[in-house]
């Protein structure tokens, strides 16, 4: 891996690593927190600038780490002109937002949490714009939806904040799901999931019969993310977020993700009638509709939100036109929109912060009270209006030029007219922003006396306003090379079209359209009060009401389905599950072909017959006596023991050892839990229902047995030979089962310990519910004396378990260390030590054992998962796929040669996760026991050794 490759990976990782800092640094104060938050962003930006010269020369920087190459999933990234543009915007704006938020957020706001969310979102956005694998891009795409949900709903005490966050998550998340399907189709057509390879397969993709479905699905993801009609309604409601969030998400990052996706896929998806009519039409409608609504909004942030919708429509329209010139114009306007829109959001936040209102009708005359804010706001608003000498004018002229060259359905006027109307409305709402907020007489009824804020708050918008002017006057010098290299990346292998970033292009159709737009905008501003009354009198659908109705309807339907199927009866759940499984199996069986068995049957040995009989008898006993819980539990243990014997008989000692350990732990936990339940359970259901359940159970059992029997009678290709041949050479172990678990199928094991940890946490959460409300009251009033023997903690058992404790721990360590070459390993070792600890609880009681085992089991689970994950990630440092193990042999005289393997560290993570999950379940039972006032001695040996005279029981 070259230095450039490493740098690119570091750029992507820095925000995620930096997200760990704010929560710690906030203890040093707000300024310290903001400073340390800015460091990862600043360092990533510096590293990006180091790679910029190579990209500006037309090179592409690649970096890749193997993850799951067999599935086409690798951590692949690449940096070209388009990626450089967006990554620079994300990081540059991230720095400015960090500074602005330091002064904007109040002392009551949890700044550390805010900055953590901000860096997580920043990392996700960098992942989107730099990913070279569409599967990885999809992961980052969904991560932006989740992190933006946290940012938009940051002020969770506000109902509108929670509603806006939910709306954004539902809309963008749904679009993301559609996009996943489209991207998978695209990868299948191209034969690769690498974006750099997909971009070279444009002709094959456009010629495929699956092109249109893939296009529609991908555009659904892009349109929902970039708030295109009819999905535009979520963005204005997301304005309930703090202004720094609005400035960041809705100018440079989240809403531009959809635009980025369309630009990235432009070489392979553009150039067809479907692309033109879907994308260009959607963009035009969104541009005009957003601008029209913005003109009549009285909330500053709402005005800016709908103006953002309009400009996103403009960008979508330009990309939809399908010409290289329009694509380059879109790139130029992306830069310009970032500079003036982010600054305007910050200005709106400053006005709200100082005047304590964003209502335009309650503002006006602020230019005298807030002169600095007035200058910055005026410059950026004039740029948004497209007035000469500001950068917005240049890209607006080029947009109008691209529009007037386009026909739509045979009409030469549709696109130019609609584009001009959109520009006209843009002038009107931009001038209204200036005139109705800053101009006019000073009012005496401001909610708070406004004044210019501290330098730290207006520094960021001032810098952006400076860029607005510099780009407007010197566009070729300031952004010319970046526009060229980013535009070249968008249009792919095509040569750059002729375009000019000059301020003056002479008298041409675009200039005439621009003059009409400015003049018409002034007229609309003059007539605004009359038009506003007409607008408010018109009936119009409310997007939020429609969305709420849809969501409420889906929620009501879900509740109805849950009430009908999820009534708390486990028998019903199992009946539905088994019945559906059997039905699907019969359908598959009926549609398949019957084949005769190809393998001969093995002779049945007498021990096997005895085992079958015992298993059948035990199963029938459990069915008949299931209401007698203790007896049923004992017989279930017998069944588990017989299965373990079967594994041993079939030469599977690892499975036998694991099965025995699992059975022991499970039975002991259930025995402890039975202490708080009646000895017998009530009659669950009628005879008819039990017969129904019996029929389904028999059908399910016969189906599974038949399927297993059919599999065993057929010759199938296996991979056992590969594992046997490579276990020692490739994994460094002679215990093939353990090598499979920690090496060949280590990813499966990693997922399993995560699931096990989640199961422990879920049990803890469920048990937590028993400590509150009516359940807790029943626990406190239940008489458990009938469930105890007279000698609650027999002395012989207490002494035996405590003597055996260190021995059991040594056995567990031994099993752990030998696992790579002999039956054992981290999973079994965790269970063995869990059994030893469980015995302490059973022998000496919950309270006594809990007082002497002060371990945070939540953290133990977490550390187990982290250690296993870090072991897998360490393989990347050597350029190997995730969880590839390394091993070697060390000889230290006089000790014999021994093996060191990274798989042992991974197994340590498995051990901690298993032990933590089991003990967390036990800890949950312990809390219930103490809540139920379980009288258990806190002193060793069940007696108070300090008591004189007769032995006195000291119960607590």
Automatic annotation (TrEMBL):
UniProt GO BP: monoatomic ion transport
Residue stretches making up the MrpA C-terminal/MbhD domain: 614-679
Pfam family membership, one: MbhD
Domain NADH:quinone oxidoreductase/Mrp antiporter transmembrane span(s) in chain numbering: 131-410
Domain Na+/H+ antiporter MnhB subunit-related protein, chain residue ranges per copy: 797-919
Domain of life the protein comes from: Bacteria
Membrane topology: Multi-pass membrane protein
Gene Ontology CC annotations of this record: plasma membrane
The MrpA C-terminal/MbhE domain, residue ranges: 690-769
Assigned keywords, A-Z: Antiport, Cell membrane, Ion transport, Membrane, Transmembrane, Transmembrane helix, Transport
Primary location: membrane
Free-text function comment from the UniProt entry: NDH-1 shuttles electrons from NADH, via FMN and iron-sulfur (Fe-S) centers, to quinones in the respiratory chain. The immediate electron acceptor for the enzyme in this species is believed to be ubiquinone. Couples the redox reaction to proton translocation (for every two electrons transferred, four hydrogen ions are translocated across the cytoplasmic membrane), and thus conserves the redox energy in a proton gradient.
Protein name in UniProt: Monovalent cation/H+ antiporter subunit A
Organism: Phaeovulum veldkampii DSM 11550
């Amino acid at each position: 891996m070259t230095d450039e490759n490493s740098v690119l990976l570091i750029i992507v990782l820095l925000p995620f690593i930096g997200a760990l800092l704010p929560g710690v640094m906030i203890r040093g104060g707000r300024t310290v927190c903001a400073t340390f938050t800015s460091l990862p962003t600043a360092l990533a930006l510096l590293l990006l600038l180091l790679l910029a010269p190579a990209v500006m020369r037309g090179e592409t920087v690649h970096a890749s780490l193997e993850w799951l190459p067999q599935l086409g999933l690798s951590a692949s990234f690449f940096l070209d002109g388009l990626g450089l543009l967006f990554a620079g915007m994300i990081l540059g704006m991230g720095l400015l937002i960090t500074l602005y938020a330091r002064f904007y957020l109040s002392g009551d706001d949890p700044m550390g949490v805010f900055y953590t969310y901000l860096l997580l979102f920043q990392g996700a956005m960098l992942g989107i714009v730099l990913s070279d694998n569409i599967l990885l891009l999809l992961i980052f795409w969904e991560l932006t939806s989740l992190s933006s949900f946290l940012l938009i709903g940051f002020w969770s005490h506000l109902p509108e904040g929670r509603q806006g966050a939910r709306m954004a998550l539902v809309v963008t998340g749904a679009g993301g799901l559609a996009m996943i399907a489209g991207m998978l189709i695209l990868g299948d057509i191209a034969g690769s999931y690498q974006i750099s390879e997909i971009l070279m397969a444009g002709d094959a993709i456009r010629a495929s019969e699956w092109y249109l479905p893939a296009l529609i699905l991908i555009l659904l993801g892009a349109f929902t993310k970039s708030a295109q009609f009819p999905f535009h309604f979520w963005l204005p409601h997301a304005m309930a977020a703090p202004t720094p969030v609005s400035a960041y998400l809705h100018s440079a990052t989240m809403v531009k993700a959809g635009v980025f996706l369309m630009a990235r896929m432009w070489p392979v998806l553009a150039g067809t009638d479907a692309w033109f009519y879907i994308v260009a039409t959607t963009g035009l409608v969104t541009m005009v509709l957003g601008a029209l609504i913005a003109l009549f909004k009285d909330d500053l942030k709402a005005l800016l939100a709908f103006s953002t919708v309009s400009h996103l429509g403009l960008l979508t329209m330009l990309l939809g036109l399908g010409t290289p010139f329009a694509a380059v114009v879109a790139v130029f306007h992306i830069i310009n929109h970032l500079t003036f829109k982010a600054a305007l959001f910050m200005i709106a936040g400053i006005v709200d912060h100082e005047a304590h209102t964003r209502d335009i009708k309650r503002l006006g005359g602020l230019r005298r009270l807030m002169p600095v804010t007035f200058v910055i706001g005026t410059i950026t608003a004039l740029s948004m209006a497209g007035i000469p000498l500001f950068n917005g004018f240049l890209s607006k002229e080029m947009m109008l030029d691209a529009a007037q060259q386009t026909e739509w359905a045979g009409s030469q006027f549709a696109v130019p007219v609609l584009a001009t109307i959109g520009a006209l409305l843009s002038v009107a709402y931009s001038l209204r922003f200036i005139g109705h907020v800053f101009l006019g007489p000073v009012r005496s009824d401001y909610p708070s006396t406004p004044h210019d804020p501290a330098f730290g708050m207006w520094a960021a918008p001032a810098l952006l306003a400076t860029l607005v002017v510099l780009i407007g006057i010197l566009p070729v010098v300031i952004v010319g090379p970046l526009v060229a290299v980013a535009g070249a990346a968008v249009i792919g292998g095509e040569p750059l079209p002729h375009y000019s970033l000059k301020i003056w292009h002479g008298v041409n159709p675009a200039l005439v359209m621009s003059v009409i737009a400015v003049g018409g905008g002034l007229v609309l501003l003059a007539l605004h009060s009359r038009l506003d009354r007409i607008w408010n009198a018109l009936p119009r659908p409310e997007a939020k009401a429609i969305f709420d109705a849809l969501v409420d309807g889906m929620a009501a339907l879900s509740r109805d389905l849950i009430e009908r199927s999820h009534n708390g009866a486990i028998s019903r759940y199992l009946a539905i599950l088994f019945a559906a499984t059997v039905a699907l199996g019969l359908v598959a069986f009926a549609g398949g072909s019957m084949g005769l068995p190809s393998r001969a049957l093995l002779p049945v040995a007498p021990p096997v017959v005895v085992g079958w009989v015992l298993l059948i008898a035990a199963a029938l006993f459990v069915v008949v006596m299931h209401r007698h819980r203790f007896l049923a539990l004992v017989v279930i243990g017998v069944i588990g023991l017989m299965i373990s014997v079967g594994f041993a008989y079939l030469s599977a000692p690892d499975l036998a050892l694991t099965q025995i350990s699992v059975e022991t732990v499970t039975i002991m936990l259930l025995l402890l839990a039975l202490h708080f339940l009646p000895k017998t359970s009530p009659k669950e259901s009628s005879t008819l229902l039990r017969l129904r359940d019996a029929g389904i159970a028999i059908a399910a059992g016969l189906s599974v047995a038949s399927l297993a029997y059919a599999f065993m009678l057929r010759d199938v290709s296996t991979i056992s030979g590969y594992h046997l041949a490579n276990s020692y050479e490739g994994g460094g172990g002679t215990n093939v089962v353990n090598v499979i678990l920690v090496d060949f199928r280590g990813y499966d094991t990693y997922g399993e310990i995560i699931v096990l940890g989640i199961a422990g946490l879920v049990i803890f959460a469920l048990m937590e519910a028993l400590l509150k409300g009516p359940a807790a009251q029943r626990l406190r009033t239940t008489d458990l004396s009938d469930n105890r023997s007279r000698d609650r903690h027999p002395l012989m058992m207490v002494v035996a378990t405590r003597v055996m404790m260190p021995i059991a721990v040594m056995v567990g360590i031994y099993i752990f260390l030998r696992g790579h070459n002999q039956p054992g390993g981290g999973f079994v070792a965790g269970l063995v030590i869990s059994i030893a600890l469980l015995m302490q609880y059973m022998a000496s009681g919950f309270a006594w054992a809990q007082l002497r085992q002060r371990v945070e089991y939540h953290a133990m689970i977490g550390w187990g998962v982290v250690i296993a994950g870090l072991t897998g990630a360490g393989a990347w440092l050597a350029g190997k796929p995730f969880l590839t193990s390394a091993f070697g042999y060390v000889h230290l005289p006089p000790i014999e040669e021994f093996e060191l393997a990274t798989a042992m560290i991974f197994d340590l993570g498995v051990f901690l996760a298993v032990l933590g999950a089991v003990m967390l379940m036990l800890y949950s039972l312990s809390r219930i026991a103490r809540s139920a006032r379980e009288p258990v001695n806190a002193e060793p040996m069940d007696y108070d050794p300090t008591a004189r005279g007769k032995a006195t029981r000291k119960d607590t």
